[in-house]
Protein 1
Amino acid sequence: MFSGIVETMAQVVAIEQEQTNKHFTLRSPYTDALSIDQSIAHNGVCLTVVKLTPEPDGTCLYTVTAMQETLNRTNLDDLKVGDWVNVERSMLLSERLDGHIVQGHVDQTARCIDVHETEGSWYYRFEYDSDKEMIRRGYFTVDKGSVSINGVSLTVCEPDVRDGKGYVSVCIIPYTHENTNFKFIEVGTKVNLEFDILGKYLSRLAALV
């Protein structure tokens, strides 16, 4: 379980294909604090640490594995060596929930269709596939609700659904822009979406009643 408050970014240093799986090796500032079997969100995708590799300088690299289902549903399959991903370790029960409940189970990807600076902050608008069945399953956003984009907990503005597409806009403060990979997002960039789990439960309940 995560909060959507990104701790830092990690850089991809190696990618290995093994049958349908991909192993990603990364470097991050807190690698030395990691352990095997630990869960970490990468661009909002919960992945398990499967290997730690000591470096000559005393630091350590770590490796996570994504299966085909994860690669199909997220933007991880597009990663290249040198790319930066947003990372967040799982929550401690004693910590404040500063964002919202993020499971690390990405629902689908979206495409950036607009980005511009506005009075000191940054505005992003995204487009994603949508239909009535997806909405019934809770794959939608509401104004002032929460959404996770590349693992960042954000407040929704200007949600819309029309012509088989869903739309969601978010505003990014300068700190978030500088300290996450939002600063690399441009028109056409693919991002990971996780819709609010509370909305999914309510949608499922409404379908069963």
Note: The mean pLDDT is 93.
Protein 2
Amino acid sequence: MDNPFIYTSFASGKHFICRQHDSDVLAGLIDGGGNAYFTDGARTGKTSVIRQALYTLRVRGRNTRTVEVPLLNARSAEDLCRKVGGALFRAVASTPDEYAALVREHLAGTVFTFDNEYYSATGEPVKVCSAPQRGDLEAILNLPRRITASGEKTIVIFDEFQNVMLADEAEDILPAFENVLRTARAEGAKNFSFIFTGSSANSMKDIFEVHKRFWGLADRIALSEPQEKEVIDHIIRGFLAGGKVIDRELARRIFRNFKGNLWYINHFCAICDSLARGYVTEAILADSLFRLISIHEPTFTSTVNGLTTFQTSLLKAVAEGHTKFSSAEVINRYGLNSSANVKRLKDALCKKEIITFSNPATGEGASIIDPLFEFWLKKYYFEILH
């Protein structure tokens, strides 16, 4: 029997819930030649929404090609160019001769070449001969537009896009992206779309919303908050598929404990499903929560051990629901010293991707990003929950 609770890969088909509107918005944007970005953090459902949108386009009969460019370990303009060029060329060709022809046709006059010996050693169809300049970056980023035939559409997904900011050449990379998209829009080119996504919510917000890069060139896809009833029904159906029963109130408790985070809900329910033999009881929920926390506790412990005393104090203020961190009451209660220190602490916790703000520019709407980490902090570290 298929596992009804999917958490090891993206959700699709009957397992894709709560985000159909988001998927339709993305599909419509891509279909019209637009570009998109996400600012939601890790394990929030971005990949599922993207995959559902691509499926929708295929159902509509659109001739699309999807190219994924993982930037997890991209730390330079050279890394970026090699990954983009390699992913795109591998999507349309497969032999050394074909790669060589593509480089000659589309990258002539740049620092890129095809080298048989390099290809044999690395499997990479694009060799970067010297440090890429702005024109070289734009040539690589223009490849989707140039290699896409009439009637086709190439969709390029840049995963972990925030890592381009780690490159020394970041101030060349971002304008190169923007210029390529701006030129394509001005010339009415709609045969390719870029999707920017990443696991670091604050870094993505910093690029797209604080510094307003790609302004008017890419639209944000804001993930909808999962609806309680729909998720509860999903939980109940999932257990019923395996011949098990859970009380609706217990399902509601699962939803609320994880603040509607579908990845954690599915992971938790998969553990419950493996333990239950008929009824999913409170004892099974407690055992499953202990097991889930045990998986993540080393990471949580490492995170808090890497914080200063001031940083943990501000984190406790966030966990206890405070919002006016620079008020005299909060500063005195949590020993934060001064409003200037509060700003430094907020910046540090955001950089560590521990807390986020719904409005980064004003610092409003503070929350802890990871709901399980928040639960662990409240119950085991700060001992707020009993």
Note: The chain has a mean pLDDT of 95.
Protein 3
Amino acid sequence: MELLAELFTHYWLQMIISIVAAYFISSVNTSIIVTQIVKHEDIRKMGSGNAGFTNTLRCVGKIPAIITFVGDFLKGVISVLIPYLLTINMSTDSASQEIRAILLYLGGLFAVLGHMFPIYYKFKGGKGVVTTASVMLMTDWRVLVAELIIFGVFFVVSKTISKCSLLCAGSYPFVAAAFRLLDSMRILSFLAPIQSPTPMFIVCVFVITFINGAAIIILHKDNIKRILNGTEKKITEKHK
């Protein structure tokens, strides 16, 4: 509990700035903006109604989808960079680095929540998959590599992005915590962002990433219904 006490006592301002900045920055939705420019329509009223990469690809086109992907990815990068820069002068000891890492995870979480529930668009945005991928990269690149492998293998079999996204979202907290647990055991320690992380830090990583993954799964509720009904579209199919 000393870790959390230190965080809330001495770094509460950095935490608030990181959370608020991440949310408001990520509330800017690239898919909505690009679709409005290209089609003069609201992407949330097209196809699946999701303001994200896949629906943009199906309903608007490849170039708008690529722009959407880049915008959604940059949200996570920028939102994690903010707490990183706010703590640039922190001590390099393990305890300080754990606090810093938690701030990075929180910035990433609120980037995803801002994308999902954007204040500028009546709290209806995307599902946060691409933004989560960028958060993985910025907080622990090993997790992104592992999840991309999981995604890729399952995509070859299913050809359905929603199924792969759900699998990755569900496994995210376990993969993230597993790498930190391996670090605490000094396994592949040369790859560890933090040497010998404490149990409390690993718990914090699991909780934050669990919330992230759970939010993605909840927003995929319609996809889950279609998967169970056998009507979920594959990436090669387009909405009319």
Note: The CA atoms of residues 156 and 164 lie 10 Å apart.
